Amino acid sequence: MRDERPDRGTAADAGAVTVSFVPTTEDVYRATRDIRLGKPFARAAEIAFPFLIGINLLMVVSDGGWRAAFRGYAWVFPLALAAWALRPWAARWQIARHRRRNAMLGGPHTITISPAGVRVEAPTMTLEHPWSGIVRARETREQFLIYYTADSAYFIPRRALRERYEAPLRSLLARSLGGRARLQPTNGTAR
């Protein structure tokens, strides 16, 4: 169930940006997708499976048909391709299921980015990370990702961040992380 309260992006003090939001299943899906695709060669791996299926199908057609090539096992390729195509739906279903079972995932989140570090408040926890404990930050079209390990990140959906706080957030991340922050240029084009 989506919380209809307006999300807020506010400046808690002159040097901090605080964002409060209730993450949706779609927010969590997009964050996990962007974290996965942010790894080296991830995009190539994303297209490798359908590419290999396509090559095999071309080989089947050019070698005299399904029966001759697979001796009755032709159903394997369409089934594998369907499973690959259903991955996004299955991931969203799994995230929704986890959100129903885990109060931390579904409740309100408040993330404060300050010169001291990152503070995350969720229904069942409060965590603080100094900048030395933050691995990197990355901005995508849909969110800001703040990595606390190489493969795990907090996310701030753009929908939760008032437009006037995007520039201060970018500036704070760039100052605090230097070259470890991959942010979009101020003209808004994706990087």
Molecular structure report:
The protein has 191 residues and is α+β, with helices and mostly antiparallel strands. It folds into 2 domains: 8-23 and 107-182, Pleckstrin-homology domain (PH domain)/Phosphotyrosine-binding domain (PTB) (PH-domain like), CATH 2.30.29.30; 42-97, no CATH class. It is 42% helix and 22% strand. It has 7 helices and 9 strands; from the N terminus they run E-E-H-H-H-H-H-H-E-E-E-E-E-E-H-E. The chain has helices at 25-37, 42-62, 66-70, 76-85, 87-101, 103-106, 166-177, and strands at 8-10, 17-21, 109-114, 117-122, 125-130, 136-139, 143-147, 153-157, 181-182. It has a 5-stranded antiparallel beta sheet. Helix 1 (25-37) crosses helix 5 and helix 2 runs antiparallel to helix 4. The two termini are 33 Å apart.
Question: Topology of this protein?
Answer:
Layout lengths: L7 E3 L6 E5 L3 H13 L4 H21 L3 H5 L5 H10 L1 H15 L1 H4 L2 E6 L2 E6 L2 E6 L5 E4 L3 E5 L5 E5 L8 H12 L3 E2 L9
Parallel strand pairs: 6-9
Antiparallel strand pairs: 1-2, 2-3, 3-4, 4-5, 6-7, 7-8
Helix pairs in contact: 1-5, 2-4
Keywords:
42% helix, 191 residues, alpha+beta, 7 helices, 5-stranded antiparallel beta sheet, PH-domain like, 2 domains
> N-to-C SSE series?
EEHHHHHHEEEEEEHE
CATH superfamily heading of the largest domain:
Pleckstrin-homology domain (PH domain)/Phosphotyrosine-binding domain (PTB)
Q: In CATH, what is the class of the largest domain?
A: Mainly Beta
Describe the sheet with the most strands: 5 strands, antiparallel
- The low-pLDDT segments are 1-8
The CATH architecture of the largest domain would be Roll
